[in-house]
């Protein structure tokens, strides 16, 4: 029989504080940081129910990384605790190129090559916009519209004055592994499960505030454009026999509800569980309430495992709304800790 296991390798929490359905905990010490990495494993096993003793004995059919932690590179410490070899990682997907999701990419690739004994071409999927320079306008001294279409060097005086700040660049040493792709990519598929990227999500998010950030593309002669964070993508896992999906999020800059709608349109199937960063930590309470209402309307949605940039307000609001309506689902876990294996029957 086949199982799907999703394991956080990097996140905000290092230990499991409470029990929750479908989670097999690890009590080994891990390092936490403001960053994210999820290991997606398809297992083949004779055990009907996985536990901390038999999960590592199961045959790994596919292993995919979504993101590779932040600047502290905690994945390098946490992954070996699983007792797995780096060479078991087949593919890497970068949800976007912000520093807290790509921090250890080069080191992870080098660990894989070291374990293999040779330089294997590990595919790393990223949207083309992931390679752009990013700038954030932090003051009101300049007008955003005055710089659109101008050379990026126009910002240099304002960088010195810290009116504009440059976000950390994504400059991987091993660019030969990068696969630049805007569209959805099927990463793994068999009779039981399909794993694919969402690709670029073009559904507008009415709750997303205009941030007035710039991006600059080298192949566009360094001309400044609005940064709509179109490189944001997620992963959809289709459980074929159950006719339901699991949605894995990096940071969800495209918006939680637009990402859900995009996933539903791609698969024509309801979402069973959502795992990862939902980018709601600075969202207004009224907007969080609106999002919670839309989630509760999806009767097939059973479990929410927020992490990273979600914030605790979301957990409290959806819990309160469910209690007021007398609903058992969706159940929500308040921030998913490292090395907590979330298991699904396929």
Automatic annotation (TrEMBL):
Metallo-beta-lactamase domain location: 81-141
Pfam families recorded: Lactamase_B
Gene Ontology molecular function terms on file: transferase activity
Xref: InterPro entries: DHPS-like_MBL-fold, Metallo-B-lactamas, Metallo-beta-lactamase_dom, RibonucZ/Hydroxyglut_hydro
Protein name in UniProt: Metallo-beta-lactamase superfamily protein
């Amino acid at each position: 029989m086949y199982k799907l296991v999703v394991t956080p390798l990097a996140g905000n929490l290092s230990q499991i504080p409470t029990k929750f359905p479908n989670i097999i905990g690890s009590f080994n010490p891990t390092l936490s940081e403001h960053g994210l990495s999820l290991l997606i494993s398809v297992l083949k096993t004779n055990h009907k129910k996985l536990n901390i003793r038999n999960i590592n004995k199961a045959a790994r059919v596919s292993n995919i990384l979504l993101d590779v932690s932040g600047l502290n590179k905690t994945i390098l410490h946490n992954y070996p605790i699983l007792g797995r070899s780096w060479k078991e990682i087949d593919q890497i997907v970068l949800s976007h190129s912000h520093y807290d999701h790509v921090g250890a990419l080069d080191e992870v690739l080098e660990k894989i090559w070291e374990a293999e004994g040779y330089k294997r071409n590990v595919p790393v999927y990223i949207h083309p916009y992931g390679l752009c320079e990013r700038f954030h306008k932090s003051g009101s001294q300049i007008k955003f519209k005055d710089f659109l279409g101008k050379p990026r060097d126009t910002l240099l005086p304002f960088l010195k004055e810290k009116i504009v700040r440059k976000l950390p660049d994504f400059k991987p040493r091993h660019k030969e592994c990068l696969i630049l792709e805007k569209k959805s990519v099927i990463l793994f598929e068999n009779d039981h499960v399909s794993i694919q990227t969402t690709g670029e999500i073009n559904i507008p998010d009415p709750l997303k505030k205009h941030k007035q950030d710039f991006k600059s593309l080298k192949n566009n002669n360094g001309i400044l454009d609005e940064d709509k964070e179109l490189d944001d993508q997620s992963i959809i896992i289709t459980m074929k026999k159950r006719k339901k999906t699991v949605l894995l999020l990096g940071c969800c800059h495209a918006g939680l509800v637009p990402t859900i709608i995009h996933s539903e349109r791609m698969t024509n199937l309801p979402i069973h569980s959502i795992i990862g960063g939902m980018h709601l930590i600075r969202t207004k309470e009224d907007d969080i309430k609106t999002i919670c209402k839309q989630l509760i309307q999806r009767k097939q949605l059973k479990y929410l495992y927020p992490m990273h940039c979600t914030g605790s307000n979301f957990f409290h609001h959806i819990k309160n709304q469910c209690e007021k309506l007398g609903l058992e689902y969706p159940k929500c876990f308040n921030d998913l800790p490292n090395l907590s294996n979330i298991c699904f029957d396929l």
